[in-house]
């Protein structure tokens, strides 16, 4: 299992980020939120991931950077959950949305729960699409 977070897996494209927020869907598990968008482009990477912490909740950049590091680390260690369940490339934005200062362990557990909720939502959407296609 590859636990790296390489440069080409980081979400940097302004066009993709714009699509993510205009056409993307969202799944939440307090205090985390995952916005995702299924990309049609053929890309080498299955996943593009970005991380964000609100300036409204953490005024000091030191605090925001700490939580961004924690989010990137929990993603890096648990991304295999996402990769194994995706069939086409996706772009993700991962948010920390509370003033509460949760510990690393709590954030890691919530990340796993969030990824499992996302997988369930994708599976549910796929089954409904398949049933609609068979009716036609």
Q: What order do the SSEs take from the amino end to the carboxyl end, as H and E?
A: HEEEHEH
Shape: globular
Approximate strand percentage = 15-25%
Q: Which percent bin holds the helix content?
A: 40-55%
Low-confidence parts, pLDDT < 50 over ≥5 residues? none
Main sheet attributes: strand count, strand direction, barrel closure? 4 strands, mixed
Walkthrough of the structure:
- With 136 residues, this protein is an alpha+beta fold.
- The protein has helices at residues 14-23, 61-85, 104-135; strands at residues 25-29, 32-38, 47-53, 90-96.
- The chain is built from three helices and four strands, in the order αβββαβα.
- A four-stranded mixed beta sheet has the order 1-2-4-3, with helices on both faces.
- A hairpin with a 2-residue loop joins β1 and β2.
- α2 packs across α3.
- It is globular.
Strand-helix topology:
Elements: H1 14-23, E1 25-29, E2 32-38, E3 47-53, H2 61-85, E4 90-96, H3 104-135
Helix pairs in contact: 2-3
Features:
four-stranded mixed sheet, single chain, 19% strand, 136 residues, 3 helices
Short description:
With 136 residues, the protein is α+β, with helices and mostly antiparallel strands. The protein contains 3 helices and 4 strands, in the order αβββαβα.
């Amino acid at each position: 299992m590859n636990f790296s977070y390489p440069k080409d897996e980081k979400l940097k494209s302004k066009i993709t980020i714009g699509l993510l927020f205009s056409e993307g869907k969202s799944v939440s598990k307090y205090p985390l939120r995952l916005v995702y968008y299924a990309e049609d482009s053929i890309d080498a990477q299955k996943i593009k991931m970005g991380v964000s912490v609100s300036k409204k909740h953490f005024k000091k950049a030191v605090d925001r950077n700490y939580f961004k590091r924690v989010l990137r680390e929990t993603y890096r260690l648990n991304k295999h959950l996402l990769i194994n369940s995706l069939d086409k490339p996706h772009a993700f934005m991962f948010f920390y949305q509370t003033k509460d200062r949760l510990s690393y362990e709590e954030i890691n557990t919530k990340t796993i729960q969030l990824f499992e909720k996302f997988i369930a939502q994708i599976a549910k959407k796929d089954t409904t699409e398949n049933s609609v296609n068979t009716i036609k």
